[in-house]
Amino acid sequence: MKAFRKQEGFTLIELMIVVAIIGILAAIAIPNFIAYQAKSRQSEAKVNLAAIFTSATAYAAEQPTPTYVVTGLSQIGWSPSGQPRFTYFYPVGASTATAFTLPTNFTAPTSCNTAPSTGWVVGASTSTATVPAGFTAAANGNVDSDNTCDHWQINDQRMLNNSQNDVGS
Fold it and tell me: The whole model's pTM is what?
């Protein structure tokens, strides 16, 4: 009987305090983790827009008269791969923003399928023949499954702009 009386352990109160501390730590960590996940998803748009910039710049350099204006998206030699979270747009012709064809296993959110209306440069003419007309490529996506879309744009000067930030909205 003496052996049973000398056994020590945790009381119910001590266990409840530990559970409460773990709950508080989880309540702090989970929202931060979700925000970091959404920010990492935005890197897809940044990387792909940089690739579009490189492809469009190379296309313009290969033309007899430098121009970013294309008649089809395949001309710049870039297309999305894998399972993109964004819809990508590039100007085709002189006035139309056209979306790149997405992989068959991807369905973009309906609210993010339209080309952005702000800051869009579609092959505007320049005064010097040696300088090609500019372009703006765009990416729209939903990185955190809410009703807000993330809008990214890059232009011929490699200026990256996040006109609508979906993270933390």
Answer: 0.73
Question: Using CA atoms, how far apart are residues 68 and 134, in angstroms rounded to an integer?
Answer: 6
Does some domain include residue 169?
no
- Total domains, the chain: 1
E-strand stretches of the chain: 86-92, 96-99, 136-141, 150-155, 160-164
b/e map of 4-42 (b: 16 or more CB within 10 Å)?
A: eeeeeeeeeeeeeeeeeeeeeeeeeeeeeeeeeebeebb
Instruction: Write out pLDDT tens, residues 26-44.
Output: 999 998 898 888 888 889 9
Taking the chain, what is the end-to-end CA distance rounded to the nearest angstrom?
A: 64
